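Morning run. Coffee first, then this:
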Amino acid sequence: MADALETNERRLRRLQQMRRTGSVTNASEALGGIWKAGKKPDSIVLRSALLRADGERSRLTKLVLPRGIALRFYLLALFEAQCRLDTGGLWQNVRRLKGAESWSTLVAIDGTYDTASGGYDAALQNMPPDLRGSASAEKRWRTRKLEDLRLRQVKGALRTLEELGHEDALVSMPRGARGQRLYEDFSLMEEGGRGDMPTPDFYTVPVRSSAARTITLPKDFFLKGWIQVLNPSEVATWLILRWMSQWAPRKHRVSGVFLTTRPRMQAFGLRDDAWEDGCQRLLEFGLIRHAEPPEGLKAALDAIADPVITALFSQPTRVRQPYQPHFWQMTDDGLAENAMQALDRELTHRREALADAAMKRVQHDPERLADHAPTDE
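And here it is:
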């Protein structure tokens, strides 16, 4: 309970700081400018190879990290590519990493939080004394520090995407004379990774195909700020549910889709805690909803003709304890809401619910009550 309260509070704090600095608003406006000036796609096409596990984990789940923006940056790069290029177009970098209309402007961050002071003013510690006291000078100083931090985040994302492994790398970077990475000259790889051939699988805009090969992501996921505020595990969960809903549209529409531990690990490599927490948060944020399950598991499987999907959505034949998975349906209407406002509302509600639950636990815990009971003298 304490961990949940702390995690929720930290997330609210970061969200509120991004509101104060306009970080999400600015990034969303930058993405909107790219969309309006480009081909205005209604959805972004994603090759499903990003999701599929090869061994224990998929490229997607390797990017479910507690820190960094690697998964976010890769999806932003696909959005930028499909706004700019025709289907089949070969991606080439046309943006700098920092400055106006750069990659850094597409990323929202909260900044550096100073635990000792309990605030975000640590950036002012190294500010020249002669500039202190001027509101405009302090604002410019904070803005510059935030720009520097965004650049470090972008470079960190590029390193993470390159270090997924020789065949799985989602970007590649040439090296300079001293072996240093030339970040500005990075190349984007297809969702299946660099590949094992001498010529890398450079990114090209995919043709929309069957859900076995591609899935679509609505433009509002990018333009309304959701990509900026969802955690990597939530994004991964949302992508997997979206893939399932498009691969089995009739089942999704009639009874919802579900996924149990063993097939989830085998197909995607996403662990229980990431999946369960991701589903719960997506439910609270209005991006998925509970579906009424069919009458019995057989009815669910009978609704699926594809034997691969039947195996994927089936429960294990032997389980230690009875388990009925949740049935989910996507709610794309939720994407139309401003992500900042939606998360602020729901995280505030969750803070209140967690605080109430903690108070009730104290009130109904005999040992804790005994610790606080008055003693006889």
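The two ends are 35 Å apart (CA to CA). Good start to the day.
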